[in-house]
């Protein structure tokens, strides 16, 4: 049985859910935060963050595949799925796939992520599809497109593949049949807020500043990218509040104890069916250690485990894993 890889055809390196938050009250000595100043006392930030993340739903699904006839990669599977959506539901394609990015404080990104599933023996080979926000409305149609894509087949020889098993992933990373969407406020974290941890990015992380790849990202770089990404997915009425919150989170990220980035370049090459050419995607892979844990940034980083960080997240790039520091 062939494996589903979390990389493209060519790769070369070296070049239980938290309680729902109630609206916190600021201290009596500071009843009103200035417009460009702190949103609230830092002690309340995790609650405020979760309160806003209650309005951002995700629907993660894990699919076990039979791809014995072809060596399937995540970009390859995304390609045939996208083609199926374009042919069967062109109006949905325009709302889910054909979404561009724009400069500014809000990132306009496609509302989904496809990534390789963890190598659980009972699931291999498998992929995970995470529908975000507006894409959840079309979940039934998007599921039908996977069946169609399987019949259409993979690769130049159009080898068919089958979906053997499909289950929803819950906030604690268990799975269940026909699960409902859940808010990112419920995203779990394997450790306490002050427990030392390592943020690991095994797949390429693509963050850019002034058109150039950030080769040694800091926690502030991650938080800045996440702030834009979340703002783009939240309902419009909550965006300005999130952006104000994000400025405070960014300042705290700069003050959070952290080590220097440890990692290497990891550049991938993928074929673009739309552009009919190969594209080189420059990124980095590595880790960042937080000796005192994420602190008040915990809800934001917990959400990042499902949203990913940076560019090309639709192909599983920028995935965040968390490890305890020994």
Number of strands: 14
Architecture of the largest domain in CATH? 2-Layer Sandwich
CATH class of the largest domain: Alpha Beta
Radius of gyration: 20 Å
Give the fraction of residues assigned to helices.
25-40%
Biggest sheet features: 6 strands, antiparallel
Overall spatial form: globular
Distance between the termini: 36 Å
Q: Approximately what portion of the residues adopt beta-strand conformation?
A: 15-25%
Instruction: Sketch the topology as an H/E string, one letter per element.
Output: EHEHHEEHEEEEEEHHEEEHE
Structural class: alpha+beta
CATH topology of the largest domain: Alpha-Beta Plaits
Name the poorly predicted regions.
Answer: 1-35
| Mean residue pLDDT | 85
Q: Count of helices?
A: 7
Number of domain modules: 2
Structure explained in plain terms:
By secondary structure, the protein is α+β, with helices and mostly antiparallel strands. It folds into two domains: 10-17 and 42-55 and 185-324, Alpha-Beta Plaits (2-Layer Sandwich); 57-183, Alpha-Beta Plaits. Helix content is 27%, strand content 24%. Strands 1, 8, 11, 12, 13 and 14 form a six-stranded antiparallel β-sheet that branches. Strands 2, 3, 4, 5, 6 and 7 form a six-stranded antiparallel β-sheet that branches. Strands 9-10 form a two-stranded antiparallel ribbon. A hairpin with a 2-residue loop joins strand 9 (208-209) and strand 10 (212-213). Helix 1 (45-53) runs parallel beside helix 7 and helix 2 (74-88) crosses helix 4. The longest helix has 17 residues, at 239-255. It is globular. It starts with 9 loop residues before the first strand and ends with a strand. The relative contact order is 0.20. The model is unreliable at 1-35 (pLDDT under 50).
